[in-house]
Prior knowledge:
Blueprint: H1 2-19, E1 29-36, H2 43-62, E2 70-77, H3 85-96, E3 100-105, H4 107-113, H5 116-120, E4 124-128, E5 142-143, H6 149-162, E6 168-173, H7 176-190, E7 199-202, H8 210-216, E8 223-227, H9 230-242, E9 248-251, H10 257-264, E10 272-275, H11 286-297, H12 305-324, H13 330-338, E11 343-344, E12 349-350, E13 364-368, E14 374-375
Parallel strand pairs: 1-2, 1-3, 3-4, 4-5, 6-7, 6-8, 8-9, 9-10
Antiparallel strand pairs: 10-13, 11-12, 13-14
Amino acid sequence: MKRLALSFLAAAALLPIVAAAEDGVTSSKILLGQAAVFSGPAAQLGTQMRNGIIAYFNHVNETGGVHGRKLELVSEDDRYEPATAPLASKKLIEGHKVFALLGYVGTPTGVAHLPVIPQAKVPLVGMFTGAEALRAPLNRYVFHVRASYYDETEKIVEQVVSTGGKKIAVFYQNDAYGEAGRKGTEIALTKRGLKIHSNGTVERNTLKVEEAVKAIHPSEPDAIVMVGAYAACAEFIKQMKNAGSGATFYNVSFVGSTALAGALGADGTGVAISQVVPFPWGAAVPVVKEYQQLAAKSGFNDFNFSAMEGFLTAKVMVEGLRRAGKNPTREGLVDALERMQDVDIGGFYVSYSPKNHAGSKFVDLTIIGRNGKFLR
């Protein structure tokens, strides 16, 4: 009888260990977190990114979840301000106790979020930024889905030079995001024996572009690479055109393409934007068809690049969770993602390894046509 009691106690002592699970994982649910901008001039970027994630999560949940667990997303507003960003991540990790993170938005906020991630050892998939500061040195817990700003600015400079342009100016946000795009443009120009023709900056979350117009317009550039959020870029383009500029305007993808077109109205015709996801209104790429169907089903009928990126980010996260197995751990998710070599998620490919967390180098160029419609 005594031996039986001891055996029972030993078994009971093991129960908490067996039953214990990572934060955010229960028998029926996996809780995931997103810190992004949901207020202020850049709010559409976070909102659309979230809409794309939700559209895919809704589909996954309706079809049985991941190994029987439903996915739940909780979002925190970092306001696109570095000072508040770490608090948003800590609230997700320590307050909500999420299992993993995805769909972050922005470079200056991303840089501020970054120290929190490895310290907590919580995986983060998909940052709506292409800055090198978030890619090098490699961070074990951060996985990128999109191409870098260096990839984007290389594509833009290649396009401008191939059409005879040589005088290339840069209008950029005065922070880590803007500097990443400025540096990428400089690198691309240096490869071709050229230099940045003129510069102008704008402060984050403001529309004060007058000094940038004064700095750039008199130099009569052939083209202007723009590295900012949609509201400030739209104001800059309008003021440059009012001043009589004949330059071609090129934006990197973070600008928020649909929001930019809406803010520009008639002034948007001919403005170019580099893209790091497939054209969301197309029909040739399987993942785009899937996005259109599932976004519409979730009530998100305003197809756009930002939501397309959120959708792809969600697909990468779900693929990683499936590969992590029926009893997922954070370290197991990292290992599973690092084994994803040249994975096809519907005509868009991602590759990771222990030495490479830059999932894609895909870059395309689009132009705003008449009535705000996008052309490839």
